[in-house]
Amino acid sequence: MPFSRPHPPFCGYPQLLGVALGIFLGIFLLSSGISAGNPSRLRVGSVVGPRVSHFRGSSSVSPGFGDRFRGRRKGLAQASTGNWEEEKSVQIVTTQGCKFCTLAKQTLKDRGVPYEELSVAGEPTMLSTVASVSGIRTVPQIFVNGAFVGDCDRLLSLDPDVFFTSGDPSKTLPDTTLERLRAAGEAGNEIKNSAIASILADTGDEKAAEMAISQTPVKGMPLNIAYQYTGQALPAGEVSQALQNGMTSLFDKHASEGGKALDYNGVKNDKDFVNLVRLAHSLQTCDPSSLSAGERMSFFINIYNALIVHAMTILGPPESFLSRMNFYNDVKYNIGGSIYSCNDIENGVLRGNRASPASVGEVLPFVKSKGPFKEGDPRLPLVIKSPDPRIHFALNCGAKSCPAIKVYTPDTLEIGLQSAAEAFCSDPSNVDFDADSNTLKLSKIFQWYRGDFGSDSEFYELLKQAAVGERGKQLGTFLDNSKEVKVEFVPYDWDLNSA
User: Fold this and answer.
1) In sequence order, what are the residues at sequence separation of 6 or more whose Cβ sits closer than 8 angstroms to the Cβ of residue 471?
2) 262 half-sphere exposure, CB direction, 13 A CA radius
């Protein structure tokens, strides 16, 4: 089943093409029913969670239920949806920056169900341990007395009395695993705090960072050059991980609407945002040139996602056709003396220096477009030679249809990318099918970046591996048994996730 040539929204440089061409393309895009904006993203991942202070421990109990529910928690209070037995306890495995984790936690609280949150954010490798029991690598995962009962979709679709009595005894977390999860959350938090404290120690730039937040940056200038960073040059990977960890923590404090929106004003006025601006300025002296391919991929995914949040917080979301077209070229960081826009990071580094699918050449076949890095560009050696298409599930773009944010490290890159792929492809709003009409319904990301996903057979295999659970099996059967599949690209939700 071949795909048609993608026609993404144009977001190149209209000032170079003239007003006439801009008007022509605008009419073309509107007539094609495609939203204006850069398909390379305009959203920030949705996250939410209990109102906890920045950089606090990642293993916590839902607020309002008291300390008696910490640890194994015996004698849970009667839930509003049914009678709870004395020995029942609920554990929910989560990570930072996950809108479905937020939604699941909010649903449990609304139903009066106390729970223990076990975050794998501090040690993502624990997700593999949990997956060996539950069979899935996405979060959230909900357990009753250690027995796996389902994910967020199952929680929302089943009657509560059915859900909480449907645990699979063959998928039970051993007590040792539960204790490791608790310890991993606490240890990860200590490591994160010490790393950030080390980075920010003795820089003396807190007042300068506060002033940078209060001022409106000059259009097109990097967001991290409001002042000169004079501290010690720091390891690039550590800075990117600390920066992204901080951003996801802020998300958890300021998300709303069940994880679907983010209060950017709340983020901007949060004292912890000052520390993140300081971290961003330390990128001026970071040198990513010595990083391996896996280290570079982790570094730039983290930086891209942090840059989007930084930009949305300081500049606000783009509100017009033209501002949205230029957003990804205008939003930039200075990294080691070189300037990187969002488009430079995504299309130059992570996609192997390929032309943006929203460039002129992708809209007008008679125009040839190239990648953003030309011969002699000092950024060219940082290009990922063998791009991984799963980066599209890891990058966040500031609106409500994008993948949930993750913090990537070289050690957890593979499981992180696969987890992001599973989370994205298991969401029916991104991948769905109708067997009666023989139709495969896909996010427009798959249309805009069709060339990144290889042949049709390679693309189908990726879908089958990424769509997990019972629904994933059904999708696999559908793709294996259907000969003439019709492909329908569903409209992309460009509404920004600002509260």
Assistant:
1) 426, 428
2) 34
143 versus 360: which is more confidently predicted?
143
Contact yes or no for 236/409 (Cβ under 8 A):
no
AA letter at 185:
G
Report how far residue 261's alpha carbon sits from residue 47's, in angstroms, rounded to the nearest whole number. 8
Residue whose C-alpha is closest to residue 46's, from 6, 89, 3, 102: 102
Q: Which DSSP symbol is given to 263?
A: -
- Using DSSP's 3-state secondary structure scheme, residue 10 falls into coil
pTM (two decimals)? 0.76
Q: How far apart are CA 288 and CA 497, in angstroms?
A: 31
Alpha-helical segments (H) within 33-68: none
Q: Strands (DSSP E) along 264-400, which ranges?
A: 332-335, 338-341
How many angstroms separate the Cα of 394 from the Cα of each of 64, 230, 359, 407? 33, 32, 22, 9
By DSSP bridging, strand 116-119 and strand 147-150 are: unpaired
Pairing of β 261-262 and β 332-335: unpaired
pLDDT at 397: 63
Reduced DSSP (H G I as helix, E B as strand, rest coil) percent helix, strand, coil of the chain, to 5:
45, 10, 40
Dihedral Cα 252, 196, 347, 39, nearest 10 deg:
10
pLDDT digits (tens, 9 = 90+) for 374-409: 999 999 999 999 999 999 999 976 544 455 567 888
Our measurement of the distance from residue 365's CA atom to the centroid of its chain's CA atoms, rounded to an integer in Å, reads: 32
Distance separating alpha carbons of residues 404 and 465, to the nearest angstrom: 19
**What tens digit of pLDDT does each residue of 55-114 get?**
223 333 333 333 323 333 333 333 334 444 555 789 999 887 777 888 899 899 988 899
Q: Who wins on pLDDT, 255 or 154?
A: 154
111, 81 Cβ separation under 8 angstroms: yes
